[in-house]
């Protein structure tokens, strides 16, 4: 930037000095020599020459320099042929030969150009009165020397030379045509005074006002006026200075348009033709007695008409050829003076703007939060701001750094980087490449992170230095790290989340394929964890999750991955396994660490987990498929009793497909009214408090078309589906109570019970559904209405299940626990839940005759239930021996095919009327009661 300012000052100084040469009215040859000296001294021009065109010979004759030093004659030839000039040159445009060694027109000068190391040449035409009359020729080592600004300067020089030639010729003509010595002396005196004025004026206004004073005081003319064209309205003249004019003439000269008055029309002609115009004797109708004739002279500034000089005389014949020629010279000098004043004003404005720009540049960069360092092309510190010194902990102030060697500063900065050798290599690489660098992240010795940019500074095509930009992004990086952790890691456990897990799993899968090892993918779910949250709250549940994950991580290898999917579900990625047996060991270890009690607020909490596994590449699925298969295996582990691991088998996925098809078939049947209820009797064994010993009817859901896809034993998995549970539950309630009420009206008052899915039982609208059907069938409550829930129901949400069951009991609805013994914590459910009866699952009844273990379990359940005042219903009774044995064990009620298969509602009244219990039951019950009585007597 400083170099650019210096070149600008040199250009303005050269133009100013050449303008002063023109004022001196030198002979053309002397003017040429002086111009060459100025260009060499001010802008360092080399091998400059000026030649004039000889149209008769077709050559450009060298005029200056007149004397050529020894050994330079070949680079300063006496003449150059016109053929070297291109058409644009004759139109007044500069001709640049960027590669003179390859220019065909200049081939005769190639040896000279080579000897003097000339690589480029510029010829600028000099115009005199609109025609090319001479040429200014400059040679240089490289075409880069001829920048746009340099070419513009040399054009201005050529224009100035042209003005000088025009002025010289006009002066010559004036001197030749002078016939009257008095007029000649006055004209010359005026011209001399005008030249002095142009030379010594300090501003354009003082120049113009001084010109009007000279014309009146020295020339003795009556009036003088100068107007310049309005830049906003080129057809209008704006008055700049005047002497001796009255108001009327002033108004005529400023009329718009000008041709409305004689004086204005004369000025308009002068501007249009570019030549002096005078008024004819007797036509000066200005109303001013002292002005009998007028002369209008166009003023040219930089070759273009810019205004008009108007002179008034007291006599009609005041403006002869001598005066007109003299005033034409004065107009030229005045135009040059205006040009010089404007050039000086532009230079001063440019210098002021440059100083302001530099100050603004420094102010802006000094107030930047980023650290700024500017290094000049000569490897000196050109600028540094306070933020730069602060970022790098420098003791020097920005002012103290300026001018210091850049290498010294780079060496000072290296010690602040975390890895100085690496930082030095990178800085050297950036400097050598000299290309823009954006977003270089560098780590400092104190842990901070800087974002560094590097920009080579160029002014046009000229390299001018380098800019380093440093910004402390430590906080930003810390924030990004926090955001990344939130995006990829679980907040509660600190484990990778689902998103990160799949990325890690893809990587592990690729490595396993490359190495040929086994990769285990697992899904782990904590059993019955929802009841933990319900008991100790979510805060305590989060604590348990964090400890459980820490336990598992503690027994894994560094390469293993434990991720949290959400809730109480986790995923595992175990690479590098050799066999399935190795996976079994890992699975048992995980289950074992989770069985250990958790201490929470002084209480011990016991948990277990179910884990599903799959092995890649035995399972060739993609990452999502592996996780899905492990998830299927995990649910299979839960179905088989929880607290265990299970390896995925393709049949599991087939089972899922089958269940989905089942769900779709049941949903279709519900919509198309293809469901129906069958009813299976439940009968008493000891005592006959019910009608003919029939305790009630259980409603069983079936498909009306007996679709083989959906077997009755598989209904439980489908009925608890989120989309089906409530609609099916409402259908069963509505249909069962409708049938019961029809029996009542037929004279058969017998209770009915329905199976309610866990999801429907815990649904917020469960009692809304109950109230709706009881409102439609109010008589049912008089004979008895009950619901049966499975053991897996209350375990889903123990607290909520207890509340619902207690509300049912308050409403008079009987509640039974179905499939007792197949789930977990069955005795705990009997103790905590307000149920009326339990149903002994048919899996214990089926082999009760042949399997002593099953008989022992059945006896224990019956005895425990009696002690808790709960009735026991044994389901799945298929033989009389089974019924007799259960009667002898004290079972209250029986249900099964031996008693009756499920029947349509219409057959229930007839079956109830014909039911007769076996006679053996009475003797068996009596024997048991006698045995109990004898045992009590002994006790």
UniProtKB/TrEMBL annotation:
List the coiled-coil residues: none
Q: Name the Pfam families on file.
A: EAL (PF00563), GAF (PF01590), GAF_2 (PF13185), GGDEF (PF00990), PAS_8 (PF13188)
**Residue span, GGDEF domain:** 517-650
Residue ranges occupied by any EAL domain in the UniProt entry: 659-916
Superkingdom in the source lineage: Bacteria
Domain (PAS) spans: 357-397
Against PANTHER family, the record matches this protein to:
BIOFILM ARCHITECTURE MAINTENANCE PROTEIN MBAA, DIGUANYLATE CYCLASE DGCP
What's the protein name?
Answer: EAL domain-containing protein
């Amino acid at each position: 930037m400083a170099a650019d300012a210096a070149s600008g000052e040199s250009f303005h100084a050269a133009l100013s000095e050449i303008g002063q040469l023109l004022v001196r009215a030198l002979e053309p040859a002397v003017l040429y020599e002086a111009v060459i000296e100025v260009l060499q001294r001010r802008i360092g021009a080399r091998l400059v020459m000026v030649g004039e065109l000889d149209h008769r010979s077709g050559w450009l004759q060298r005029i200056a320099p007149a004397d050529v030093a020894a050994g330079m004659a070949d680079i300063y030839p006496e003449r150059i042929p016109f053929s070297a000039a291109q058409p644009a040159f004759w139109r007044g445009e500069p001709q640049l030969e960027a590669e003179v060694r390859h220019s065909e027109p200049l081939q005769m000068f190639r040896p000279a150009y080579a000897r003097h190391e000339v690589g480029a040449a510029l010829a600028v035409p000099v115009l005199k009165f609109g025609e090319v009359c001479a040429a200014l020729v400059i040679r240089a080592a490289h075409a880069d020397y001829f920048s746009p600004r340099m070419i513009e300067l040399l054009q201005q020089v050529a224009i100035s030379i042209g003005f000088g030639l025009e002025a010289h010729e006009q002066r010559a003509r004036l001197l030749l045509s002078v016939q009257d010595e008095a007029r000649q002396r006055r004209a010359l005196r005026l011209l001399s005074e005008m030249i002095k004025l142009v030379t010594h004026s300090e501003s354009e206004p003082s120049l113009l006002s001084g010109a009007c004073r000279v014309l009146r005081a020295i020339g003795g003319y009556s009036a003088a006026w100068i107007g310049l064209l309005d830049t906003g309205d080129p057809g209008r003249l704006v008055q700049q200075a005047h002497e001796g004019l009255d108001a009327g003439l002033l108004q005529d000269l400023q009329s718009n348009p000008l041709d409305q008055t004689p004086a204005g029309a004369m000025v308009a002609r002068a501007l249009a033709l570019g030549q002096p115009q005078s008024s004819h004797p007797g036509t000066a109708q200005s109303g001013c007695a002292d002005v009998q004739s007028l002369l209008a002279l166009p003023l040219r500034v930089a070759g273009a008409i810019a205004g008009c000089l108007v002179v008034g005389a007291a006599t009609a014949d005041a403006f002869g050829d001598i005066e007109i020629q003299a005033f034409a010279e004065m107009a030229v000098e005045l135009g040059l003076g205006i040009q010089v004043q404007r050039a000086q004003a532009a230079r001063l404005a440019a210098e002021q703007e440059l100083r302001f720009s530099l100050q603004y540049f420094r102010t802006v960069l000094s107030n930047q939060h980023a650290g700024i360092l500017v290094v000049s092309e000569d490897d000196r510190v050109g600028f540094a701001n306070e933020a730069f010194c602060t970022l790098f902990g420098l003791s020097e102030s920005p002012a103290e750094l300026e001018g210091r060697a850049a290498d010294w500063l780079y060496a000072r900065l290296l010690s602040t980087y975390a890895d100085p050798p690496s930082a030095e290599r990178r800085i050297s690489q950036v400097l050598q490449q000299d290309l823009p660098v954006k977003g270089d992240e560098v780590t400092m010795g104190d842990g901070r992170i800087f974002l560094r940019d590097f920009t080579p500074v160029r002014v046009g095509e000229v390299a001018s230095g380098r800019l380093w930009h440093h910004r402390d992004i430590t906080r930003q990086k810390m924030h990004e790290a926090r955001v990344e952790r939130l995006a990829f890691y679980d907040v509660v456990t600190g484990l990778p989340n689902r998103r990160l897990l799949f990325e890690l799993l893809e990587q592990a899968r690729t490595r396993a394929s490359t190495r040929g090892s086994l990769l285990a993918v697992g899904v782990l779910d904590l059993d019955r964890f929802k009841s933990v949250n319900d008991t100790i709250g979510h805060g305590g549940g989060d604590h348990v999750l964090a400890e459980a994950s820490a336990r598992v991580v503690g027994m894994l290898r560094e390469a293993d991955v434990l991720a949290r999917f959400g809730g109480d579900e986790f995923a595992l990625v175990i690479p590098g396994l050799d066999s399935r047996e190795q996976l079994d060991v890992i699975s048992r270890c995980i289950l074992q660490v989770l069985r250990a009690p958790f201490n929470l607020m002084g209480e011990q909490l016991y948990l277990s987990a179910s884990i599903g596994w799959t092995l890649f590449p035995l399972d060739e699925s993609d990452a999502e498929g592996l996780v899905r298969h492990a998830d299927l295996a995990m649910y299979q582990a839960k179905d088989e009793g929880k607290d265990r691991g299970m390896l995925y088998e393709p049949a599991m996925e087939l089972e899922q497909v089958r269940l989905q098809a089942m769900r779709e078939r049941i949903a279709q049947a519900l919509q198309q009214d293809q469901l129906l209820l069958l009813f299976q009797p439940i009968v008493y064994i000891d005592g006959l408090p019910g009608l003919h010993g029939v305790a009630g009817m259980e409603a069983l859901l079936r498909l009306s078309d007996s679709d083989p896809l959906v077997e009755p034993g598989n209904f439980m998995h489908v009925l608890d589906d989120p989309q089906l549970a409530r609609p099916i539950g409402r259908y069963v309630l509505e249909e069962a109570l409708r049938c019961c009420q029809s029996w009542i009206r037929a004279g058969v008052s017998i209770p009915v019970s329905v199976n309610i899915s866990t999801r429907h039982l815990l649904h917020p609208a469960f009692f809304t559904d109950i109230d709706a059907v009881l409102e439609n069938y109010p008589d049912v409550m008089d004979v008895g209405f009950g619901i049966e829930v499975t053991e897996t129901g209350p375990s889903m949400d123990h607290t909520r299940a207890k509340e619902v069951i207690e509300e049912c009991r308050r409403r008079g609805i009987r509640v039974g626990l179905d499939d007792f013994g197949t789930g977990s914590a069955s005795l705990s459910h009997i103790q905590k839940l307000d149920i009326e009866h339990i149903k002994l699952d048919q899996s214990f009844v089926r082999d009760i005759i042949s399997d002593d273990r099953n008989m022992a379990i059945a006896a224990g359940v019956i005895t425990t239930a009696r002690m808790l005042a709960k009735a026991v219903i044994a389901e799945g009774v298929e033989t009389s021996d089974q019924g007799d044995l259960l009667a002898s064990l004290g079972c209250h009620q029986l249900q099964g095919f031996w008693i009756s298969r499920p029947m349509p509602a219409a057959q229930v009244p007839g079956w109830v009327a014909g039911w007769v219990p076996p006679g053996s039951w009475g003797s068996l019950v009596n024997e048991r009661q006698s045995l109990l009585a004898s045992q009590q007597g002994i006790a």
